[in-house]
């Protein structure tokens, strides 16, 4: 058959009236070289322009970029390549008639600055007082030429320049990233960093603040350029920190992780691999909680993540009752549901590890507690196991962004001791069995 002239397509959506005066234009999104790569999140059902603008304002960014109807990116510099308005032809998933980019195209909007007193605005965090690196301030990529810089002025300047660290030496302001020469591991007495004349004479010390913007040296991620030859599982019992480990792996390697399941909440948090079929081999590893022989033998190798069962059980019970970031209510702990849950899940915690030790073909065992306490050495092992070479700068960026958005929200309820002596006897028996198998 022969194609005739293309039928006129539907008219591209226009920016909504309220956001029209904030609209900057349609831009090409250069993947790895994108300029808007801070605070990335997606929303397949409810993305709107203002939703994205608010998220970027909260983190002190000047521009919000929307792509493919559902993706939001933030930054302080406009993308280089401007394209015609017709290329941004996707409607926002949560707002009829408004424009949210296209495939590889960003609709960019300016962000209204939140008033300083606004509750939503992220604050500056004091990281401590540190000795200046060997070659002093030459290490720092940018500085504010202003006498008597305050913490607010310095943080605002460095946020605008997209640096995660604002550094004050006396009244001088510098901006930086954590580097191997300046890794923020050895804090000294804060009194050495005061702005008194005496402290200013001790010019080899500086006060370091975390700005609200993200360290973006490790936020770019993509699918593997060619299908993986080795099919790797990231296996854990539920509640063992699998999602957090995926966040660390993705930011360290620059590649998406996949999942045996589909979780829309996780997709919306930026895990693009959630939507990919788990056998696509386009992801660096695949999350699974399965523990049957057939499911284990489908993988060529696995990172087996193990967490203290007491913590895992509490975390998974919280998730079952109140979602990924909530806490179970008092009534849940006091109901029959909790002892029933402990009986069945404690046995599963044990059989999960034992099955992977027995049927897994090539394993790297990682203890969640070890990952918490010595993040970089453990992450280096994981990345080497995944056969990816990563720069030290990128790993320091992961350390700087280590929490992601996986901390449970709000105050932890005051827990009564949820484990009875009978529960403890049962769980301790399983711990001994697993310990023996690991040894």
TrEMBL record:
Key words of the record: Repeat
GO molecular function terms noted in the UniProt entry: sulfotransferase activity
Keyword flag Aminoacyl-tRNA synthetase: no
The UniProt record lists the keyword Repeat: yes
Pfam families: Sulfotransfer_1, WSC
Domain WSC: 20-112, 123-218
Annotated InterPro entries: P-loop_NTPase, Sialate-O-sulfotransferase, Sulfotransferase_dom, WSC_carb-bd
Family: Belongs to the WSCD family.
Protein name in UniProt: WSC domain-containing protein 1
Species this protein is from: Neovison vison
Lineage: Eukaryota, Metazoa, Chordata, Craniata, Vertebrata
Gene responsible for this protein: WSCD1
């Amino acid at each position: 058959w022969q194609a005739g002239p293309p039928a006129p397509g539907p008219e591209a959506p226009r920016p909504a009236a309220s956001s029209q005066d904030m609209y900057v234009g349609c831009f090409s999104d250069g993947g790895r070289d994108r300029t808007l790569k801070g605070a990335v999140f997606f929303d397949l059902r409810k993305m709107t322009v203002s939703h994205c603008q608010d998220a970027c304002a909260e983190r002190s960014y000047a521009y919000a970029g929307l792509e493919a109807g559902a993706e939001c990116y933030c930054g302080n510099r406009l993308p280089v390549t401007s394209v015609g308005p017709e290329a941004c032809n996707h409607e926002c998933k949560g707002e009829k008639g408004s424009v949210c980019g296209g495939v590889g195209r960003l609709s960019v909007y300016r962000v209204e600055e939140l008033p300083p007193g606004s509750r939503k605005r992220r604050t500056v965090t004091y990281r401590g007082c540190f000795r200046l690196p060997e070659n002093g301030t030459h290490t720092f990529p940018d500085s504010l030429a202003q006498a008597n810089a305050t913490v607010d002025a310095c943080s605002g300047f460095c946020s605008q320049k997209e640096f995660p660290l604002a550094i004050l030496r006396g009244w001088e302001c510098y901006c930086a990233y954590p580097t191997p020469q300046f890794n923020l591991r050895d804090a000294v007495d804060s009194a050495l960093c005061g702005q008194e004349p005496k402290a200013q004479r001790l010019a080899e010390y500086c006060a370091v603040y975390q700005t609200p913007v993200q360290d973006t040296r490790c936020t770019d991620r993509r699918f593997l350029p060619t299908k993986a030859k080795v099919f790797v599982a990231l296996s854990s019992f539920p509640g063992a920190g699998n999602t957090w480990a995926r966040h660390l792996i993705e930011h360290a390697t620059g590649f998406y992780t996949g999942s045996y399941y589909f979780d829309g909440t996780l997709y919306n948090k930026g895990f693009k691999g959630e939507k990919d079929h788990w056998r696509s081999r386009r992801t660096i590893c695949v999350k699974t909680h399965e523990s049957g022989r057939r499911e284990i033998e489908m993988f060529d190798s696995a990172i087996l993540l193990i967490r203290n069962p007491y913590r895992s059980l509490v975390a998974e019970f919280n998730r079952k009752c109140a979602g990924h970031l909530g806490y179970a209510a008092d009534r849940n702990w006091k109901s029959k549901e909790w002892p029933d849950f402990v009986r069945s899940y404690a046995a599963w915690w044990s059989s999960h590890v034992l099955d992977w030790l027995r049927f897994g073909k090539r394993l790297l065992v990682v203890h969640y507690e070890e990952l918490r306490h010595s993040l970089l050495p453990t992450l280096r092992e994981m990345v080497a196991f995944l056969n990816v070479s990563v720069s030290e700068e990128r790993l320091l960026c992961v350390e700087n962004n280590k929490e992601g958005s996986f901390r449970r929200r709000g105050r932890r309820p005051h827990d009564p001791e949820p484990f009875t002596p009978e529960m403890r006897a049962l769980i301790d028996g399983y711990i001994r069995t697993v310990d023996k198998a690991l040894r």
